[in-house]
UniProtKB/TrEMBL annotation:
GO CC terms: plasma membrane
InterPro entries per the UniProt record, alphabetical: DUF3817_TM (IPR023845)
Pfam family, one: DUF3817
Ranges annotated as spanning the membrane: 7-26, 38-56, 68-84
NCBIfam families: integ_memb_HG
Protein name (Swiss-Prot/TrEMBL): DUF3817 domain-containing protein
DUF3817 domain span: 3-88
Cellular compartment(s): Cell membrane
Assigned keywords, A-Z: Cell membrane, Membrane, Transmembrane, Transmembrane helix
UniProt organism field: Polaribacter gangjinensis
Bilayer disposition of the protein: Multi-pass membrane protein
Length: 90
């Protein structure tokens, strides 16, 4: 389960960065919202999967409520999932 969570966290982090960089660049600079639509749905699915998996493995990882809160916040902060992977999963 931890390995799956790490993979989902990595993919969620990449999708978030793509959405915030390429998606917003194309939408606001080039007036083409197609990249936001392209990256938005996969990111949303990965985001929800990340939160669900974090909640499911909290007991296995022996996370306290503070640790779980940091893991959850890592999903909404750019590069946060990479920090969580390094600090809490290795």
């Amino acid at each position: 389960m931890k390995k799956i969570f790490r993979i989902v966290g990595f993919l969620e982090g990449i999708s978030y960065l793509l959405l915030m960089s390429l998606g917003l660049y194309y939408k606001y600079v080039l007036n083409d919202p197609s990249f936001v639509k392209l990256f938005g749905m996969p990111h949303g699915i990965l985001f929800m999967l990340y939160l669900i998996l974090a909640y499911l493995i909290k007991d296995e990882m022996q996370w306290k409520i503070k640790d779980l809160t940091i893991v959850f916040l890592g999903s909404i902060i750019p590069f946060g999932t990479f920090y969580v992977d390094k600090k809490y999963l290795q």
